[in-house]
TrEMBL record:
UniProt-recorded name of the protein: Histidinol-phosphate aminotransferase
Pathway(s) of this molecule: Amino-acid biosynthesis; L-histidine biosynthesis; L-histidine from 5-phospho-alpha-D-ribose 1-diphosphate: step 7/9; Lipid metabolism
Membership in a protein family: Belongs to the class-II pyridoxal-phosphate-dependent aminotransferase family. Histidinol-phosphate aminotransferase subfamily.
UniProt KW Transcription keyword: no
Keywords per UniProt: Amino-acid biosynthesis, Aminotransferase, Histidine biosynthesis, Pyridoxal phosphate, Transferase
Cofactors that this protein relies on: pyridoxal 5'-phosphate
Chain positions found as N6-(pyridoxal phosphate)lysine: 209
Length: 349
């Protein structure tokens, strides 16, 4: 790698910023019984009358153990969407900087670029849904701050060749953001394991998919302590609420349950792939490392509507680049998948 200098990437206003210091930042219980008259809370206990821990220490310390990182390499947000937005706001100057995204991919990167008024340079994946490394590096300019890689990728489902990702990381002086929302369903190694080797990566994960907690909104960001401290400066003080912290902590303390569910979802996925091969209107079943399957069909909109009429909601991805006539199925329970198969066979004429 040439020279990567994080401070050169941080927006000047963020560098100068004196973060808001909340009551709970200034004083956190240290085990002694204290009387808290510092935050204008209602003193009558109801479980949520106190502000939550702004640094989510208990939750981060369990996550750190689980992922084999340090707590200061973790930032938590109100879903990945907040985490991704913080990354934009820390590093990208509106109307000046740009980012690179790699369609077909997760739609939020583009939307967040638009919201933050940042130019989004798009470089299509190859026909095999892999990274076109040369074209990506060709698009990099002086003001390219971030490259977003969704791995495994949504909606295609595949994971990218690790050597290609490595080449990008090693030849880019900005930050490579690797969105691992589906990593628990994948046989590929997480890039969290490379945080100590590469100072210019950010890995995002979420409790919304494998952990079965889309409703609590918890996004997790892993990066160098230096990057995390920049993001910490600009995050809203109480961005992860008390109920979310409690629920997520309970789930992580019983992570074996998560692993068991993931295992059943993967078994269901493989069963479904077998059966889909027998459906005549499905032309291609794409390789998947996620909890969904992308297929190419004869007429995506027609098949989508037929499934809807039969009470099954899937995602029609036909308007995504390289995804003409594709449909995306999330893996459901065994019963739900059985029903899906019945309906597919029924409309297959
Ligand atoms: C579902 C998904 C997320 C999760 O977003 P949350 O805001 O954490 O629910 C992130 N990235 C990708 C690619 C996804 O598909």
């Amino acid at each position: 790698m040439s020279e990567f200098n994080l401070q050169n990437l941080v927006r000047a206003n963020v560098q100068k910023l004196q973060p808001y210091s909340s009551a709970r930042d200034e004083y956190k219980a240290n085990g002694n019984e204290m009387i808290f008259l510092d935050a204008n809370e209602n003193p009558f206990e109801n479980g949520v009358n106190r502000y939550p821990d702004p640094q989510q220490r208990d939750l981060k310390s369990e996550l750190a153990k689980l992922k084999n990182v340090n707590s200061d390499q973790i930032l938590l947000g109100n879903g990945s969407d907040e985490v991704l937005d913080l990354i934009f706001r820390a590093f990208c100057v509106p109307q000046k900087d740009n980012i690179i995204t790699l369609p077909p991919t997760y739609g939020m990167y583009k939307v967040l670029a638009e919201i933050n008024n940042i130019e989004n340079k798009e470089v299509l994946l190859t026909e095999e849904f892999q990274l076109d490394v040369k074209s990506i590096l060709n698009e990099v300019t002086e003001t390219t701050k971030l490259i977003f890689i969704c791995n495994p990728n949504n909606p295609t489902g595949n994971a990218f060749d690790a050597r290609s990702i490595k080449t990008l990381i090693e030849n880019f002086n900005g930050i490579v953001v690797i969105d691992e929302a589906y990593i628990d369903f994948s046989s590929y190694e997480s890039w969290i394991n490379f945080l100590d080797i590469y100072p210019n990566i950010i890995v995002t994960q979420t409790l919304s998919k494998a952990y079965g907690m889309a409703g609590v909104r918890l996004g997790v960001c892993y990066a160098s302590a230096e990057i995390i401290s920049v993001l910490n400066k600009i995050k809203p003080p109480y961005n992860v609420n008390e109920l979310t912290q409690q629920k997520a902590l309970q789930r992580i303390l019983k992570v074996d349950e998560v692993f068991n569910e993931v295992e059943s979802i993967i078994i269901e996925r493989e069963k479904l792939i077998e059966v889909l091969q027998e459906v005549n209107f499905i032309d291609t079943i794409f390789e998947t490392e996620a909890n969904f399957i992308l297929v190419k069909v004869d007429n995506a909109t027609k098949r989508y509507n037929q499934l809807l009429e039969m009470g099954i909601v899937i995602r029609n991805r036909t308007n995504q680049p390289l995804c003409e006539n594709t449909l995306r199925f999330t893996i459901g329970t065994s019963e739900e998948n059985k029903k899906l198969i019945e309906v597919l066979q029924e409309i297959d004429n």
